[in-house]
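User: Predict Thioester reductase (TE) domain-containing protein's structure from this.
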Amino acid sequence: MVVRMSILLTGATGFLGSRLLYALLVDEGHEVTVLGRGTSAELRGRVVTCLTDLAGGPLPDAVASRLHCLSGDLRRPRLGLPPAHYSRLAGRTSAIWHSAADISLSAPLSSLRETNVAGTERVLELAEYAGRGCRVTCVSTAFVAGRRRNGCIAETELDDTYGFETPYEQSKFEAERLVRAWAQRHDRPVTVLRPSVLISDSHPAEGLPQHPFAEMGRRSERSGTALFEGVSGRVRLPMAPGGALNVVQVEYAVRAMLRLAARAPDGPGVRTFHVVHPVDTPVRLILEAVESRHPGLRLEQVPRLTDPSAIESLAAAHLPDFLLRYGAQRRSYERSGILALAPDLADPPPLDTAYVQAALGYERASAHCHP
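Assistant:
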């Protein structure tokens, strides 16, 4: 039997955070306070819109009554709350899920640190004030492994020897390092979850947070016309051949995260878990999904793009950073944590071309562009 808790959740209006909120409220039956920007009424409006989309209709009153929204700011002292409100929040919080993050792959490190590092520090300060009974779960990323291209990344590993592909990775690395120091200093348990690229074959409504593949599909559309519309023949892309990307279905990731957070040991220290797919997705398969929509198109991976044509320059500009930067990776991720703590959770199926096409939104796009 699940014991109902009073949970503070950050990042509830994001693609992953909204799904975590739905699961905590609807599937687990917890009481959840969402912290976010804007007035409490504005925040609740955004959150309810996300939840309604996920539920396919209005939330039952019994569920909605367990949802509370609190205006605050991770970057400010006491989360931007008046002292009395901060004290009340700490007093009623039995667990914290910290999912909020600036996930931009192009923002400067100084900006990312404000949310991803300083924001994590503010959350830990609240956990300290709430007392030892308050459990902390922090969502990080598998890409704290940085530029390391090969080998198996251990769940205990936190190493900056190889450097980072993006400032985002570095900011999350620094946040994890901060969490480890805090847990050791205060002799407290913390669960750190490291998802890879999250994907879904279903798409949120217009205006709601999308997953990276949906954004990729949208960015390849210009004024309603597909980027490669009418293009035939070879188009070179600046990415090393033979690379693979760890992409995992968000539905599986949420189920895994809930199990890991609930079953992680109570003893002090940080337990880190990779929430990743057991099978990497070849970048070639992703490119084939794009090619399938444009007969005659051949996307070719080249280590270096020299003397690009106009369409090659345009394609490189529109392809998302995560595909260009991570497409050369051949590394894997240890999964012993999820296998040990959640043997009842079946592995997600490997991604195939049809699934990637749906994730890119090409089914709907094709119906729109070719009535």
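Residues 364-371 have pLDDT under 50 and may be disordered.
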